[in-house]
Amino acid sequence: MAFDATFFALVGLILFFILIAYLKVPGMMAKSLDERADNIREELAEAKRLREEAQILLGEYQRKRKEAEADAAQILAAAEREAAALTEEARQKTEEFVARRNALSEQKIRQAEADAISAVRSAAVDLAIAAAERVIAAKADGSTQDALFKDGVGKVQARLN
Fold first, then answer.
1. DSSP 97-130
2. What is the rounded CA–CA span in Å between residue 110 and residue 104?
3. Cα–Cα distance, 38 to 44 (Å, whole number)
């Protein structure tokens, strides 16, 4: 029987398989694959846990954002109400100021009218007295003047006593 290269290749292959079985390579490979599968399962579990935590955090941040938006809306509404109240108060104060200034101006005008009327009356009285003096002086003679003077002096003495 002639042994050719195919026979020796077959014998080498069988010896290789026996050596692999003797060294427990399939068990080591299975163990290695099991360890790798366990690692992958752990990584998947960790990824799932992290995803759930991320979902929880996302929900919490969305809730906080909605609360912040609600707070901002409340603050904005309060600011608008306060601005409206301040505007109304300023309008009322302005109207009151204008009314007081108008009243003060009208009072000053009435006072100025009264002063003008008094001045005109005083000037009219002075003019009437001066005119009466001229008329009396022109019509009265010396004896009439003496009688009027004595009469006036007598009235003054009567009032002083």
1. HHHHHHHHHHHHHHHHHHHHHHHHHHHHHHHHHH
2. 10
3. 10
Fill in the DSSP letter of residue 141: -
Question: Comparing 18 with 66, which gets the higher pLDDT?
Answer: 66
One-letter amino acid at 49 equals R
Which phi and psi angles does 128 have, rounded to 5°? -65, -40
Domain ranges in the chain are: 25-139
Full DSSP string of 40-109: HHHHHHHHHHHHHHHHHHHHHHHHHHHHHHHHHHHHHHHHHHHHHHHHHHHHHHHHHHHHHHHHHHHHHH
- Backbone φ and ψ for 116, nearest 5 degrees, come out as -65, -45
Q: Work out the pLDDT band at 110, boundaries 50, 70, 90.
A: very high
Q: Which residues 6+ apart lie within 8 Å of 26 measured at CB?
A: 20
What's the pLDDT band for 1 if we cut at 50, 70, 90?
A: low
Is the pLDDT at 28 greater than 90? The verdict is no
